Amino acid sequence: MKIITETKNPSDPLLRSFKLGHLTLRNRIMSTSHACGLGDSDHMPGEAYQAYHLAKAQGGLALTMFGGSSYVSQDSKWSSGQLSVATDKVIPYFQKFSNRIHAEGAALMIQITHLGRRAETNTQSWMPSVAPSPIRERGHRSIPREINHDEIARIVREFGDAAVRCKEGGLDGLEVMTQGHLIGQFLSPDTNKRTDKFGGTAKNRARFGLMVLEEIRNRVGGDFIVGMRYAVDEGIDGGQDFDDCLHILKMFEERGLIDFVNANYGRLDTELSLVVDCMPGMQERQAPWLEKAGAVKKEINLPVFHAAKINDIATARHAISDGLLDMVAMTRAHIADPDIVAKIKRGDEDRIRPCVGAVHCMDQNRPICLHNPVTGREKAWSHRIQKSLGKSKKVVIVGGGPAGLEAARISAERGHKAVLFEAANALGGQLLLADKASWRRDIRAIVDWRGNELAHLGVDIRLNTFAEVEDVTAETPDVVIVSTGGIPDFSLIEGGHLCTSAWDVLGRQVQIRGDVLVYDGTGRHTAPTAAEMLVKAGQEVYYFMIDDLPAKELTYGERVIWKKQLAEQNIVPTGDHSLVSVERMGNRLATTLISDLTGKETRIETSAVVLETGVTPVSELFDELVAGSANGGRGDLSSTLSPKLNSQMVPGRYDLFRIGDAAGSRNIQAAMFDALRLCQTI
User: Fold this and answer.
1) Chain segment 193-215, per-residue pLDDT in tens
2) Interatomic CA distance for residues 172 and 110, integer angstroms
3) Which string of DSSP letters, residue by residue, matches 431-461?
């Protein structure tokens, strides 16, 4: 199959076609392989998986790669998230998948691998892991045995078998994952301590990888694209430096085994290295390894791809126009907005929904994107909001936090007249407090993008308006959506009235001097952010938690950064403690806590106590609006999924719903999903 560019001689370098072997890619923008968590229970790319990638193809990118860490062998498995290319059963799935993607003008490729020591031994096949040397991997915790020559031959053959299945499935190509996986474990002196023909010199360490790529090339021929995801520098003492990586890469190039290199940086064996090196989160600078990838391109004659926090168009355009890359991978950017290319083409770059680097897409609870509630749910919902087929309605939204902003945006996209009341002088709600952490400033883009969209859509925004029932009913609404959020409530805590909310610390509503006890009762961002702010202001902080580790409710990519931040600030968390009471002792406060593990009581005196226990819904307005509603304010899950709207539109009556924290204390993504599943049906 040949992909033809839709734009002739474009001035934008991102929209120029690219020749990759026999394949012509329609532009220079791609998405790299990742484990999106949407595979069927038998590890096949079914409808949900295909719909997720189809949205990106429909959005105009040239190449979507899928199947991060897809396994070729039974001893290369994790508990979830992978696809299997170890059985012929996958071929019909690939055939349907490739036909759907090709029909949209995009190319489709997969990543295949053997995990080596990264495999988990207590899941699925319950097989022992193998590696060049018996060195434990910290991330997945297996202790591998040293692989023998028979096993090497078997795995080489299984790579070839898997590649044939990919070709028979109609895919345009594949990449072999080397970085940190079995091939990369052979390549690196840090993980390869062998003294036989597979260890020691660069030639010996490259031997296994060369055998794999030779097997693949011999089995699929020259009319199938084959590449490598490859670390161009491990960035660790005792590992592969840039020169060693380049030297070995040239061995693959000289033998004509690969058509491209997908350049990565760093190591994968710890949570911290994943979110700092391989998939940098919002705490890292933009495109941290782009120059490294560009340096490789200068030294080889192969096309170079690269992905690592390239989530804005200016950086992507620079990467192509300055010759640093041949294809720029905007993987997480497409998770946030699959229509990136389409928006570039029609001159709507300012309307691209930005990836904020929240790393929710790396969590085990996928599908999820903090900024886009449709992602991963494409079977049920669409990224492209459709106009309502019915009569335009008046939709009044009360509360301008994430839930309210998304409700107003979708309602306006549907063709309804949206009015948004916000009591504060700015949009954002609780999210305005989130960027107070030293490393989370990019989160503000969630508010900024929606503010820009509401302006574009002509939504009537009324700031500094504490909406009462009369304000709402004066609009003669057809639908009222209460998204007033929640507030901290310490009334059930003995002595809670003596405490300070973490919100007040973040909003600088109070000035605290002296030593402070911070109690984290949620495992979210709020408490560690407040603790960090207090320490930086010169206060001594005692940090107690209801959980056994900080930020337990968050994704691993967020948890590990908080562990790092707290350690750098010399904040020592004490876990598994319940707060019992707070009482005044002169001009100080005495807090009593009990260890959930031992039952031992701890009593600490400090100048102040800062609590984070979540929020309770602000429900007064909703309760007052129920009497005038057509649906009695019933907004349970069933009615939210299929709202019973007031079809007769009786004057003075409206359908009433509440979403976000106004319905219950949750997170940003849940709040915006509430808005999505309600407003796409209005």
Assistant:
1) 999 999 999 999 999 999 999 99
2) 9
3) HHHHTTSTT-GGGGHHHHHHHHHHHHHT-EE
